[in-house]
Design a protein that fits this description.
Belongs to the aspartate/ornithine carbamoyltransferase superfamily. SOTCase family. By secondary structure, the protein is an alpha/beta fold. The protein is built from 13 helices and eleven strands. A five-stranded parallel sheet has the order 9-8-7-10-11. The termini are close together. The structure holds phosphoric acid mono(formamide)ester (CP). Phosphoric acid mono(formamide)ester (CP) binds next to helix 2.
Length: 312
């Protein structure tokens, strides 16, 4: 069993209930991962994913080992048949096979280029590990998805909703850098699996991949989208249609207390204060960002638990 995408979740409500059970007794399966090793390979920076996934592994009795691949390992070649006389020193065929001998599960973080859409959508790094490793693979944020975050967000909404069918808005917000679509994509996929009223708000030119958003309503007027919202999930992403470009930095899209009304505020973190969201929101009881980050452990633990059970 791999955990590559939100589409690997067969029944999101069952997964949420299982994550809640883990949260109520995090050490309940501490024997399950005994003598098993989790390898965490980071091609990009991380705070939450890096620590919460290790914490999840430790709660299951696993031994996590971590490598910053980009900084510390040999440059990995992903091309088939490449004459390796450039900067790459080791092919993914050998690298994945070797790491598979040290680890029972391999977790990978590899962000998109945001310049080569076809390459990013091919999920070159993640799929190469899935192809050449002989052990299960977990996606810790790839070019197009962040399914550990999406599962976390579904769990958090389930915990904090006061209604059987809350209204959830995914709102784009401005940013100074071109950011990936992965968090937005996985959040969309998670909400499409949940029983929520779900809409997206983003400026013209910022629609996410239509193959992912499908028939989810998209508003280009943020105020209209926010009417009756119970949860506002905020994230910046660069343009998908003008791939990787920053076309809009309009500060009027920043999230404020006034816009939120009674809605709860969510964000995957890290977040730039007073660019994406004003201080007053993050410093208020409306903000769930710390609770969300806590849930990263239990989402990861559920995924690792399912894989370990599958390996038995
Ligand atoms: N939300 C999230 O994935 O955080 P990190 O990038 O710090 O891991």
């Amino acid at each position: 069993m791999n955990y590559i995408s939100i589409q690997d979740i067969d029944d999101i409500n069952a997964w949420i209930e299982a994550a809640k059970a883990i949260k109520s007794n995090p050490l309940g399966d501490v024997e399950l991962g005994k003598h098993k090793t989790l390898g965490l390979l980071f091609f990009n920076s991380s705070l939450r994913t890096r620590l919460s996934t290790q914490k999840a592994a430790l709660n299951l009795g696993m031994n996590p080992i971590v490598m910053n691949v980009s900084g510390d390992a040999w440059g990995i070649e992903f091309g088939d048949g490449t004459v390796m006389n450039g900067n790459t020193a080791e092919h993914i065929k050998e690298a994945a096979a070797v790491v598979s001998q040290y680890c029972d599960i391999i977790a990978v973080r590899a962000f998109p280029t945001l310049t080569d859409k076809a390459k990013d959508e091919s999920e070159q790094v993640l799929n190469a590990f899935a192809k050449y490793a002989s052990v299960p693979i977990v996606n810790m944020e790839s070019a197009t998805g962040h399914p550990l975050q999406g599962l976390t967000d579904a769990l958090t909404i389930s915990e904090y909703t006061t209604k059987p069918r809350p209204k959830v808005v995914l709102s784009w917000a401005p940013h100074v850098k071109a950011l990936p679509h992965a968090v937005g994509n996985s959040f969309v996929e998670a909400m499409q699996k949940m029983d929520v009223e779900f809409v997206i708000a983003n400026p013209e030119g910022y629609n996410l991949n239509p193959e992912i958003t499908k028939d989810t309503p998209i508003y280009h007027n943020q105020a209209e989208a926010f009417i009756g919202a119970d949860f506002v999930y905020t994230k910046n992403w660069s343009s998908y249609e003008d791939y990787g470009q920053i076309k809009n930095t309009d500060p009027n899209w920043m999230i404020t207390n006034e816009k939120l009304g009674h809605a709860k505020f969510m964000h995957c973190l890290p977040v730039r204060r007073n660019v994406v969201v004003e201080d007053a929101v993050l410093d208020s009881d409306a903000s769930l960002v710390i609770q969300q980050a806590n849930n990263r452990t239990y989402a990861a633990q559920l995924v690792l638990k399912k894989i370990l059970e599958d390996l038995q």
